[in-house]
Amino acid sequence: MGPRREGAMPISADLLRAISGPVVLIVFGTLVAIDHGGGLQFSRTWPILIIVYGLLKLAGSLKEGARS
Amino acid sequence: MRHSLIWPLVLIGLGGVMLAHNLRVDFSFWRLLGDYWPYVLILWGLVRLVEIGILAAQGKALPRRGISGGEWAVVILISILASSIWFASETRERLRAGRINLGNLAIFQETFEYPLSGKIASPVAPRILVENRRGNVRLVGGEQNEVVVTGHHSIMGENRAVADRVGEKMRLELAGQGDRIVIRTNQEQAGGEYRVESDIEVRIPRGASVECRGTRGDFDVSQINGNFEVISDNAGVRGKDIGGNVRVEVRRSDIVRLAQVKGNVDVKGNRGEDLELEDIAGVVVVEGQFTGDLEFRRIAKAMRFNSERTNLTIEKLEGRARLSDGDFEVEGLGGAMRFSSRSKDIRVSDFGHPVQIELERGDIELWPGGAALAPIVANTSSGSVTLHLPEDAKFDLNAISRRGEVENLYGPPLERREENRGGTIRGANGGPRIALSTGRGTVTVQKTAGQMSRKNEVTVPGAAKPPAVVER
After folding, report:
1. Is A19's Cβ below 8 Å from some Cβ in B?
2. Which domain holds residue B398?
3. Structural domain tally of chain B?
4. Interface test with B, best of A15, A19, A42 (most B CBs within 10 A)
5. Is the ipTM of this complex over 0.95?
6. Is the pTM of this model over 0.80?
7. C-alpha separations of B197 from B89, B97, B189 in Å
């Protein structure tokens, strides 16, 4: 699907959807970096990725709910 | 996102890293990827966040997905590839360190130590052979007439019973025949199944000569009047207060440091890192690839360094010379010097002997010491050449830039002329011949005694001095 035009949906919901990928990527990179640095192992911290993604989806749903 | 900065940045970064991989022998693209890929992902996410933030601030359409499906595929590919490299590297390190754990099957998990000791009567000037496959060896000369060995074996095994069995096979051997004494740790007897190391310290008569053989481990020898020789696959070598010749032949080494050697020094390093030679009374020959810093101080006779890209000969070095990846600095030449390299920035200072420099790429800066100059030839295909001449110097100078500027800050008798896309500086007042040239770059001649600083700016009166070679 192509990019959505402004006005099709509240900008904050669009924004949340757009940033969810980069945020998950940053969290993933950070967890792996912590693992390589000798801290908590990624095999133990990976659920944080699901939590972060869930939070972003939740925030997006709330924004959409508020619009309707 | 059509106009994302990510792909141009990825291409630039990838190109830069691969270029460094090709140009520098100590730089590994794969090692870098294995170590830093998580930060690449973080940077990727941050750049994308900034881009989305800018779009949002400008009120433009936002992408439905901040990271496209294709990008996620690349992320997964990078993750699999880089984590495989990282895992392989970690596993290799653990194997080296002797600790790896595969589920409930523990291999080489524990290290057990067994003390070693022995002594044997020795002639005043024995020839001592030390064979220690893995581990560190230290030999110190003294006034006693015996050879005394202390130390320990380290054996890595599943349990003590296994280690005991291996230890039984590895007897310290101390044998004397005539003036020859052999010290063997006999690690070969343990078989290749178990990882063993032996660290030993040996007290020897001061008149001894020492030969060391090993595969991995350091050799440290001091206070002997005889020769010192090391042949090893991978060793750090340190020698101090050696009365005879020193010969070092290593395939790899993190450091070769020799000080106060009365004889000749011959170092062959297939792939070494750092080298330090200080107060050497004999001839020095160094051959091989060294990726770290090379430092030479006070070499009384001729020294020669040859690597794939760099050749250096100095008849005598009263000061010091430092050769690193991108620079060569030398001060206090006691004899003629010849230097050639593919790529280096060079600074030669405090010299009154002939100097010849040939470079493919790099800057040359020359600070002759005193008014009595010697012939100088300095050529670079690409780079600047700067000569700092004493005010009352005598010379016959011919400097050429084929493509670039020429600056005469010295004044008469030198004359500057522009020719085609370059220029010349010529002039003579009855001194030795000085020939400077660059294919592409600036040639500058300026005064040292006077008012010129290194940046060609007028400063306070007083003689400008060449910068000292940086102490490490």
Report:
1. yes
2. 309-472
3. 2
4. A19
5. no
6. no
7. 22, 11, 12
